[in-house]
Each structure stands twice: as C-alpha cells, then as structure tokens.
Amino acid sequence: MKQYMVDKIRNVAIAGHGGSGKTSLAEAMLYRAGATDRLGKTADGNTVCDCDQEEIRRKVSVSSAVAPLEWKDNKINLIDCPGLFDFAVGMSEGIRAAESVLIVVSAKSGVNVGTEKAYKLATQMGKAKLFYINKMDTEHADFHKVMESLHAAFGASACPMVVPYVEDHKVVCYIDLLDDRAFSYAADGSKTDVEIPAGASGMVTALKDDIQEAVAETSEELMDKFFSGEDFTQEEIRKGLLQGVRTGTIAPVFCGSALTTEAINPLLNAIVTILPSAADNAGEQVKTPGGEELYLDCNADDPLAAFVFKTVTDPFVGKMSYVKVVAGKLAASSSPTNVRAGVPERMGKLVTIRGKKQEDTDYIGAGDIGVICKLAEAVTGDSICDPKRLVLFEKAPFPKPSLTMAIQLKGKGDEGKIAQALLRLMEEDPAIAFENNTETRQQLISGLGEQHLDVIVSKLKNKFGIEITLTKQRVAYRETIRKKVKVQGRHKKQSGGHGQFGDVWIEFEPCDSEGLVFEENVFGGAVPKNFFPAVEKGLQECVKQGTIAGYPVVGLKATLVDGSYHPVDSSEMAFKTAASLAYKAGLPQAGPVLLEPIGSLKVTVPDANTGDIISELNKRRGRVLGMNTLNGGYQEIVAEVPMSEMLDFSIILRSISQGRGDFELNFERYEQLPQMLEAAVIEEAKAMRADGE
Q1: Can you point out the beta strands (E) in 282-341?
Q2: Going by C-beta distance under 8 Å and a sequence separation of 6 or more, which residues neighbour residue 157?
Q3: Which residue in 66, 47, 65 sits closest to 56, CA to CA?
Q4: Tens digits of per-residue pLDDT, 483-502?
Q5: Which residues are CB-contacts of 107 (< 8 A; sequence separation ≥ 6)?
Q6: Does residue 330 carry a pLDDT above 90?
Q7: What pLDDT does residue 183 have?
Q8: How far apart are CA 536 and CA 520, in angstroms?
Q9: Which residue has the higher pLDDT, 55 or 114?
Q10: Three-class HEC string of 157-212
Q11: How would you label 369-403 residue by residue, b for 16+ Cβ within 10 Å and e otherwise?
C-alpha cells in the first residue's frame, strides 16, 4: 500500500454492542473498497478482522484488529473493536488510536448498553462520532424506531444523513439527504440510481430541516441565518457538518446492511468527506517527562512522536507493537527513545497489517498506524519519541480486573512455566492480573468476566501448551483472642550430656496491633535477658498459625512475666520451645475467634437498579453506608462487605444492571466472623491441609 499524506488518512474505530455487526461491517467496507476479493462472514470464520483462533472458534471478536483500505485517494485505517464487555480492552485501545468512532447499532434491537459505552468512551476521549444503523435487510428492522432511541439516549446530536424508504416492511431504496438522491440495490449487490419516491417527500423535508437545525448550532453566523428563515447553501451545510462532527455536536447517522453490502458506499464517502482526517484531529495534548504540558500537532515535518496502543505476543513472530505515529516519521533506521523506560529502542521490521496479513513498509508516516516487530522494551501505552523531543502521551482508560479465580495446573512441571506465560499474555491484555498468593497458597488470575478468563485458559493451552482449570479463590482469614490469660510453658528434656531446660510464664491478651506485640516484665532475673529474644522468636513463629483453623494470629500481646532457668541446661532453643508450649496452651483458653476481611465497596449503577443492588448487598451481609447522586442518572452506593461474599459479585452486578454497573472493592480491615459460619471455614482449612497444601 502506498504512503499517504496526513490529510489523506482517516483512523476510524468501529465500536458498539456485541452482535450489532461491527466485524461484518468492516468486512463489507473492505470488500466494497476492493481491499479484499471476497466477502467473509463471521459465521464461517473467514473474516479479515476476526482472524485469531479464539475468534474463529467463538464467532465473536475478542481483541481489536486493524484493517486499512483505500477509498477515493484516501487511506482509511479501520480498527474493529470487540463489543462484549469481557473484552473491553479492545474497545479502549481501538478508540485511543482513532480520530473517529463509527458506532454500529442494530436496526432490530436499537440502542443497547454497548452503544452507550462506545458513545461515552468516544466522548470522554474527544473523538468524532458517526452512527451506522446496520441490518436493514432483516425482518423487523425499524430505522425510525432506532432513530427515536438514539435521540432519547444522545439528544439531537444524532443527525440522519442516509435514510431508508420502506414499503411492506422492505427497504425500497435509500435516500442520501445531503446529495438529494436515491439508490436501490439488487440481490447481487449492484446499485441503481432511482428517483426519490413521492411518498418519501414529507419525511425527506422533515429530516432536511433537522439537518439545517443541527448545522445552525455550529456557528453564530449560521444560527442567525437559520432564524432569519434563509436556507443554507450546500457548501455551508458541509462546512457546518465538518465543524459539528469535529466538536462532537453532530453525530451523522447512516444506515444499510453489512451482510448484503447495501449502502456501504455512502458510508465510505462520508468517512473521507465528513469525518476528520489525521491532520484535523490526531494532534494531542502531551506532557514532557518534567510535567510541562504542550500541544503536539500531527505534522510529518516535526520530530518523531508515537505511542504503542496495542501489543500482540505471537509465538512465531514474537512481540508485535501496534503504533500510532502522531508526528514525524517512524522508519526502520530510526533510533527513538522509549520515554517510560528511558532507553533507546532498536527498531525491528516495520509492517502494515490487515487482519493477519502483513506487508513490509519503509516507514510509518504521521497520522498513520503500523506495527513494529520485536521491540524489546515497549509495552502498551508507551511513548516512542525522537531523543530531541521527549513527550508522554496519555494512556487509554483500560478497565480494571473484576473477577478472580485460582489456577489449578493439570500437567506436572508447568509450575515454572505458568508465570512466564501469563506475563506474556498480560503484555497484550492490560486487564489481566496475576498474583502468587503465598498465604492461601494459590496462584490467582483476574480478568473482566467469565468469558475473558475462559479465553485466557484457551490461550495458555494453544499458545504455550499449559493446561489449567479454574477454581474458587480462598479467603485469607485471621485469628485473634478475646480474653486475657496467664500460662506456663515448661520445656525439660534430659539426655546424655547437657539437657534442655526452659521455663516461662506468659500473659496473653488482646490488643489493636496487626501482629504480635511482645513485652517483658520479669523481676529478679528469673529469666536471663539474653533469652528474651529467643522467647519472642518462638512466639513470632507460632503466630503464623492459629489454634482454630491455622490462620495467622493478629491483635495479640504477649508479656513475659516470670520463669526459671538452669545454669547449664538452659539455651535459646529451650526457651524458644518453652514459649511455643505456652502459646499452644494459652490461646485455646483466651477465647480464640476467627476474623474475616472486610472490604470498602463503591458501586456505580443506574438509578433504576439501586434497589436491587442494595438488596443484593444485604444478602451478602453488607452494610450500606450511604449513597451519592452522579450525573447521567447514576447512583454511587458506598458500603462495607465481607470479602468472602464478593467473589462472584461482578457477574451478578453485570446481570442486574445489564452491564451498566461498575464497582471498586478495597480491603479495609478484619472483623469477627459470625459464629455460625466458623464451622465451614474450619472444615475448609482442614481440607486444605489434608491436600498437602
């Protein structure tokens, strides 16, 4: 593919709800532009963008994919983003690299949660937006009903540009309101220009008035002309549209069918004429390493400035870093600096990529997207710059992991391989987290949901040959005491030669510390001072395991008050053992109890789901502390909840709120576990020890 100037490049992320037809739309656009010679289908597993083994098997997108095409002497980099919430990282990284977001909406189901999330993220990141109402060829498709739902969700910014004319529930033709013409499609996809049907005149007039009103909002001059009753010229309408789209006050609406490729050409035309180019919108506000803010123009003549927006770890090719060049030119001969790492990056092979097909390129120009193979240091979010001008680009807002499971290895000898394999996967997916929890003796993996974790399991098997199953994570309980006791620990052992003798009296009592507080209050040299450290060491080793279920003991104060010694047989080891005997004798008498971890929870949900979530938290022994009203019809619920009750909360929250809810849970403190639940925790601890763990 030839190189394009910055004003001839459009980077467009395709986003929306799962199942709205995003990948099919990308496929139709590639086919109509001549970038592919056949029209692939997701059901057949032969589309350009869903080329990963997991995507072919599942028939859904699990990561973003880049697919460039050429249209009317412009280059359009399509970035197909996943719609399922479990793979939201793909949407974040795709929108981050684009100047515009093409939001796909099903003509049958209308606005869904995924539509709202795509629009919200595009707005948050300052991207231009365009709607495409897909699946107009299907039964029960209703363009006007979908337009009503767009206006209800996003206001008057949704502005129709291409609309269908329907008779007997079938699209007779499509009407281009900007160019004032109509066209129909045959079964083979061929297009024919037709007259605008007489029955459509009322609809066309009303929609054109809507366009005029939307355009009037873009400048005071046009607003004055609108109120004076004058019609806008075609040039004024196009200029107003460009301005409105760039500022976000207008989101043009197109429609058609990706499956039949109906009305794909008008969409491609709109992308190169209405949506901003890289020259218009790819410039960014950046910071220097010293914290100074500056605006970086998308200019080919400036020093190199680029950022990595996606990383893929390929078992054969190695690491592939997807980069967006904002300024300058990235060539194989470049010696840029990785600003985060503070080291020069050695350039590997440069390629442009369409799905899984790669094409070598001499350089990646300003405003363009490409891939660098085998960058040593770079990870997603890194800034790659000319050493003469180092800047830091803002990173994409990636979602945080919300569901954690424990790893159970199937194969022997994989213990050493699993951590390295997961680190490789974490390079390509920032929403994966991995922890080796030494306390619960489990390796924990976290992701965005059940499907996300299922894909990770599949990738570990297919890419790295490691088979695992996922089990419930254990909760890290604690033990403490509620009463004060005084006990003796006496260790006496006689054998040939020197014997062993240590004798201590220790008072155990509750305190507010996180661990053990040791003090001594011995009079008259009953226990020599040189044995005090041995007594403390013996107790420090003991508190690692409580006497109820073997969990660490906290909030324990131990005071050495008396004892005795033998001038020959006493030793540090003997007093350490004596302290251990006192601990084992004293704790069961001191009212030992189990403590459970309590988390501080903040849940953000739509107003309509507030009651259901509060009810759910009550079932989980939660205490609601308060509520805060947020913008956009949302409530923030603040609560404290036992961590053991929150293991599957992300799944329930998604179900109740249809994916609109979000939460943040952080450890707060330990509280006494209700007595009725102690037996189950003790049995679980016994089973864990019986398994040899």
Answers
A1: 284-287, 293-296, 305-314, 318-327, 329-331, 337-338
A2: 129, 214, 248, 249, 250, 251
A3: 47
A4: 999 999 999 987 766 789 99
A5: 133, 134, 135, 136, 138, 141, 142, 143, 146, 255
A6: yes
A7: 93
A8: 9
A9: 114
A10: HEEECEEEEEECCEEEEEEECCCCEEEEECCCCCEEEECCCHHHHHHHHHHHHHHH
A11: bbbbbebebbbbbbbbbbeebbbbbebbebbebbb
Q: What is the pLDDT of residues 634-664, one digit of tens each?
A: 999 999 999 999 999 999 999 999 999 999 9
Over residues 189-215, the pLDDT tens digits come to: 788 999 999 889 899 988 988 888 888
**Cα dist from 276 to 8, 76, 247, 370, 653, whole Å:** 10, 11, 10, 20, 38
Look up the pTM and report it: 0.88
Buried b (16+ CB within 10 A) or exposed e, 155-189: eebbbbbbbbbbeeeebbbbbbbbeeebbebeeee
Round to whole Å and give the CA distance between 384 and 306.
5
Q: Which residues contact 14 (CB under 8 A, 6 or more apart)?
A: 22, 25, 26, 78, 79, 80, 81, 94, 101, 102, 104
Judge contact between 323 and 379, C-beta under 8 A: no
Residue type present at position 326:
V
CB atoms inside a 10 Å sphere around CB 667 = 11
d(CA 340, CA 391): 10
Query: Which residue, among 530, 529, 584, 532, has the nearest Cα to 559 in the 3D structure?
Result: 532
**Long-range contacts (CB closer than 8 Å, 24 or more residues apart) made by 514-519:** 514/554, 514/555, 515/543, 515/552, 515/554, 515/556, 516/540, 516/543, 516/553, 516/556, 516/557, 516/558, 517/556, 517/557, 517/558, 518/557, 518/558, 518/559, 518/560, 519/557, 519/558, 519/559, 519/560
Question: Cα dihedral sign for 177, 181, 187, 190?
Answer: negative
Amino acid, single-letter form, for residue 539:
L
| Confidence check: pLDDT of 284 > 90 | yes
Measured distance CA(162)–CA(285) in Å, rounded: 34
CB of 575 within 8 A of CB of 527? yes
What SS3 state is found at 97? helix
- Alpha-carbon distance 104 to 19, whole Å? 10
**588 DSSP 8-state letter:** G
C-alpha span between 192 and 184 (Å, rounded): 5
Spatial distance between the Cα atoms of 480 and 587, rounded to a whole number of angstroms: 9
Residue 641 to residues 34, 469, 471, 479, 647, Cα–Cα distance (Å): 57, 28, 22, 19, 11
Cβ neighbors of 690 (< 8 A, separation 6 or more) are: none
Q: Cβ(645)–Cβ(622) under 8 Å? A: yes
Strands 662-672 and 623-630: unpaired
Secondary structure element (H or E) that encloses residue 688, with its range: helix 675-690
pLDDT at 611 over 70: yes
206: Cα within 13 Å, side-chain hemisphere: 7
The residues pairing with 134 across neighbouring beta strands, listed in sequence order, are 106
Q: What is the 3-state secondary structure (H, E, C) of 626-652?
A: EEEEECCCEEEEEEEEEHHHCCCHHHH
Q: Per the structure block, which two tokens stand in for 79? A: 């970035």
AA identity, residue 600: S
User: Which of 641, 643, 558, 597 has its CA nearest to residue 479?
Assistant: 597
DSSP for 247-292, please give it. HTS-EEEEE-BTTTTBTHHHHHHHHHHTS--HHHH--EEEE-TTS-
Looking at the predicted structure, is the pLDDT value of residue 413 above 90?
no
Mean pLDDT of the chain: 92
Task: Determine how many CB atoms are found less than 10 A away from the CB of residue 70.
Answer: 15
